[in-house]
């Protein structure tokens, strides 16, 4: 059955009504999932297999029949490991219907249908008894319910329920326990993702509003590839602390709780950020350990097992606190059933009161701006580019219209002497009580704007970063172009548009690790999981699932195999064209390697001589090393099959891109010529 669905178009700003199959969302979730990354995680798989074999052996040594409960079975991999290790029967629970169907197919293909029962339910709905989903309680509990924060996928409530209703007392558990680690650090780089910093414009120092300074910030965890944060960008103020452990073989409580680690400050500094990760012990003795520790904590970083389904966590303290070397400190972690948060006190404070509820944003800014957006607004070099561009075009009588979400450009324009500044789509404004006297805030759509809203003035400067909170892919910010077209009749004949143009760039790349999230697996630990590959491929083939996808490439090292290449230019001094714009051609491969896909990004030409790149921030090195803008996501087009390139000019990257003005989409196709 098909239904009409309203979908907001991030590029045109329109509400598009499209006919969708009832399976559309399923296909999108599967196509954009990272199941393949888990299957390619050899370290995880081997540790689980080893832990399962040990647990089965312990139960058999007691003379018991081995019954396994696998919650969140996914592909059924852990259940097949258990049966292969000697389990008598396994109940594999999977709530996501397409995944449960894939697991059933995989179990059957590997010949385990007689010993593995796939149950398509949430574990809390599973029943035990003669007429239930399970005939008996299990004596081994196997789970993979974890996310980067450990408990964010509801691990604690699931374990709590399982011990009450689904497993025997004294059961074995794989993993047996999990341990949370944390380190208090000072880091200007990371702190800029949480708090707006003072900004200087032509001798005027803009201070964040008190409400923002006092705000505890966004409550959600910031999960990143911490291995890509250089150690020189932060200063440890204390040791790596063991915060708490959870023993999964015993009854688990999801009740909120707090734990404290006491230590002496290693050095003086500003306590700002907590870096955190976890380990899981697959056995009671802690001999089989799977760790999420970042690569720079390894004695040999080359042995670090890369994974993207589990990363590391960054938590921001509610407020920056000065600490002195040798000072006794309490680092406190609190959790509810789904999340963690940290706080810091001095040890001499005997009455340590921990908030029962996690901190939340009270200034609204953290609800509107993402953490990368905070980093972008705090980027001094970027600010300097925009200020210099504005300085070169503004005049005392300029009437400016700003089109961006939560942008500081109107403030810069006012400080640089603009007569009147108006702006669209204002979600947050620095010092509104003062600035609203000089900046006219327009809460209307561009097509609704009239001269009356501008007090009879034509627009002499239309400006934008552009940034829109709804943008995911680089070209979604072309919404600025559609806004420019909507207000064309209100522009002065000699109006200046900033930025004046945007160019879409491409570069063929070899990823160090990111390719794993899209690579077929085939077999995993000796089991045929190809039905999973087939399911993902079917979803990728389902309409728009097979396109570029957004990724913050600063977290995922890659090597350029071609030179960066401009493929489409969008002239903002003109209105959006009526007809599609096509660009095709070839780019020679200059680097030798395995080409996994194509990276795409926008560069904005603010003025004739000032350009801002939202992709590569430096020229590609001779070895092909790339440095990416950390504030925006770039687009990645993955090839379905990889190709080795010689780099001697025998192969070319063939591209064909078409910008569709009516939809705002960019249709793209890439291929590689034969040598």
From TrEMBL:
InterPro entries for this protein: Arg_MeTrfase, MeTrfase_PRMT7, PRMT_dom, SAM-dependent_MTases_sf
Reactions catalysed: L-arginyl-[protein] + S-adenosyl-L-methionine = N(omega)-methyl-L-arginyl-[protein] + S-adenosyl-L-homocysteine + H(+)
CDD domains for this protein: AdoMet_MTases
Enzyme class: transferase
Gene Ontology cellular component list: cytosol; nucleus
Domain Protein arginine N-methyltransferase: 176-345, 501-673
Domain of life assignment: Eukaryota
Keywords assigned: Chromatin regulator, Cytoplasm, Differentiation, Methyltransferase, Nucleus, Repeat, S-adenosyl-L-methionine, Transcription, Transcription regulation, Transferase
Annotated transmembrane regions: none
Similarity comment text for this entry: Belongs to the class I-like SAM-binding methyltransferase superfamily. Protein arginine N-methyltransferase family. PRMT7 subfamily.
Protein name: Protein arginine N-methyltransferase
């Amino acid at each position: 059955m098909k239904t009409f669905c309203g979908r907001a178009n991030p590029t045109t700003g329109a509400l598009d009504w499209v006919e969708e199959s009832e399976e559309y969302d399923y296909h999108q979730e599967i196509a954009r999932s990272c199941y393949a990354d888990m299957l390619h995680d050899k370290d995880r798989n081997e540790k689980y297999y080893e832990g399962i074999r040990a647990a089965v052996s312990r139960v058999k040594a007691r003379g018991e029949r081995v019954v396994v409960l696998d919650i969140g079975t996914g592909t059924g991999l852990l259940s097949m490991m258990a049966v292969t290790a000697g389990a008598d029967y396994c109940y594999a629970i999977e709530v996501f219907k397409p995944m449960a169907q894939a697991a059933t197919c995989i179990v059957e293909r590997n010949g385990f249908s007689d010993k593995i029962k796939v149950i398509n339910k949430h574990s809390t709905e599973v029943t035990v008894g003669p007429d239930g989903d399970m005939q008996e309680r299990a004596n081994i509990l196997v789970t993979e319910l974890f996310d980067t924060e450990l408990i964010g996928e509801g691990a604690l409530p699931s374990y709590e329920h399982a011990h009450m209703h689904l497993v025997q007392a004294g059961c074995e558990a794989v993993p047996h326990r999990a341990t949370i680690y944390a380190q208090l650090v000072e880091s200007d780089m990371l702190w800029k993702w949480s708090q707006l910093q003072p900004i200087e414009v032509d001798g005027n120092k803009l201070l964040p509003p008190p409400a923002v300074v006092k705000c505890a910030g966004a409550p959600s965890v910031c999960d990143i590839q911490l291995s890509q944060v250089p150690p020189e960008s932060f200063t440890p103020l204390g040791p790596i602390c063991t915060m708490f452990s959870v023993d999964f073989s015993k009854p688990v409580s999801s009740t909120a709780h707090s734990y404290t680690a006491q230590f002496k400050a290693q050095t003086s500094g500003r306590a700002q950020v907590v870096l955190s990760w976890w380990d899981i012990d697959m056995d009671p003795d802690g001999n089989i350990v799977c760790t999420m520790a970042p690569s720079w904590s390894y004695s040999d970083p080359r042995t670090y097992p890369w994974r993207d389904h589990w990363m590391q966590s960054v938590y921001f303290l509610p407020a920056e606190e000065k600490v002195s070397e040798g000072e006794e400190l309490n680092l406190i972690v609190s959790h509810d059933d789904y999340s963690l948060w940290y706080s810091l006190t001095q040890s001499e404070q005997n009455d340590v009161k921990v908030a029962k509820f996690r901190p939340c944003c009270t200034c609204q800014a953290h609800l509107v701006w993402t953490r990368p957006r905070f980093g972008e607004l705090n980027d001094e070099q970027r600010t300097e580019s925009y200020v210099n561009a504005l300085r070169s075009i503004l005049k005392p009588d300029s009437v400016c219209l700003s089109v961006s979400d939560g942008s500081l450009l109107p403030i810069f324009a006012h400080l640089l002497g603009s007569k009147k500044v108006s702006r669209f789509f204002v979600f947050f404004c620095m010092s509104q009580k003062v600035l609203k006297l000089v900046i006219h805030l327009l809460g209307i759509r561009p097509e609704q704007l009239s001269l009356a809203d501008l007090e009879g003035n034509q627009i002499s400067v239309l400006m934008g970063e552009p940034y829109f909170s709804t943008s995911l892919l680089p070209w979604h910010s072309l919404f600025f172009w559609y806004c420019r077209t909507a207000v064309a009749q209100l522009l002065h004949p000699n109006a200046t548009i900033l930025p004046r143009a945007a160019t879409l760039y491409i570069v063929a790349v070899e990823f160090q690790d990111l390719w794993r999230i899209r690579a077929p697996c085939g077999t995993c630990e000796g089991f045929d999981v190809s039905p999973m590959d087939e399911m993902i491929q079917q979803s990728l083939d389902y309409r728009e699932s097979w396109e570029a996808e957004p990724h913050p490439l600063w977290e995922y090292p890659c090597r350029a195999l071609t030179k960066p290449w401009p493929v489409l230019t969008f002239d903002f001094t003109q209105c959006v064209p009526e007809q599609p714009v096509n660009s095709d051609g070839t780019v020679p491969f200059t680097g030798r390697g395995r080409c996994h896909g194509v990276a795409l990004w926008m560069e904005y030409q603010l003025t004739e001589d000032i350009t801002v790149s939202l992709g590569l921030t430096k020229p590609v090195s001779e070895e092909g090393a790339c440095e990416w803008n950390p504030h925006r996501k770039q687009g990645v087009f993955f090839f379905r099959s990889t190709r080795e390139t010689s780099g001697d000019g025998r192969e070319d990257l063939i591209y064909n891109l078409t910008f569709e003005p009516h939809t705002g989409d960019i249709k793209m196709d890439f291929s590689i010529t034969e040598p």
